[in-house]
Amino acid sequence: MSTPFGGPARTAPGLPQLPTPPTGWPIGSYATYEEAQRAVDHLADSDFAVRDVTIVGVDLMLVERVIGRLTWGRVLASGAASGAWLGLFVGLLLSFFSTATPGSLVPILVGLVSGAVFGMVFAAVGYRASAGRRDFQSASQMVAGRYDVLCEPRNAEQARELLAKLAMSPPPAGR
C-alpha cells in the first residue's frame, strides 16, 4: 500500500488507509496549533481517551517567507557547501578502501574539493537556467487560519467539560 505522495502507507491500526475527511463533533477551536496541542495534552493528562480526538487545520494557506536576495555569491557558496558535504562522504568511503598510507587524508581531501567544485558547477547551471525569474531565497510553510479539535460523539461532552476547566485555569508559566 502506498500514499498519494508515493511513499509507503504508515497509518496506525484502525485508521483509514485512504485520505478521508475528519469525523467527530467540535469540542474546541484555537487560533494556533500550539493552543490546540495544549488542549489535547490537557485531555491526555486527564486520562481522556485521546484516540477519539483529531486536530484539524482549517483555512489552509501556503506561506512563503522571503529570506533574502539570491546573488551569484550566495548561489556558488551554497552549491560549494552542499557539494562539499557529499564529497566528504565519498572521500570517507574512498579512504576505507584506499591503498594509500593508512591514515592518509588524500582521499578525503580529494572528495571534499571535487565535491565542492561539482556542487558549485551544478548550482551555477541551475541558477543560470532560471534566467533571473527567481532571484530570492524563501522558506515555505503550510499554516491554518484556525485549528479545530474534534472528538467522536460518544466522548465529546466529557471532552468539552475537561476543556472548559482548562479554559478557566491560568495559562502555564513562561508565556
Automatic annotation (TrEMBL):
It comes from Pseudonocardia sediminis. The keyword Transmembrane applies. Residues 1-22 are annotated as: Disordered. The chain crosses the membrane at residues 75-98, 104-127. InterPro entries: GSP17M-like_dom. The keyword Cell division does not apply. Residues 27-98 form the General stress protein 17M-like domain. Pfam families: YflT (PF11181). This is General stress protein 17M-like domain-containing protein. It comes from the Bacteria. Keywords: Membrane, Transmembrane, Transmembrane helix.
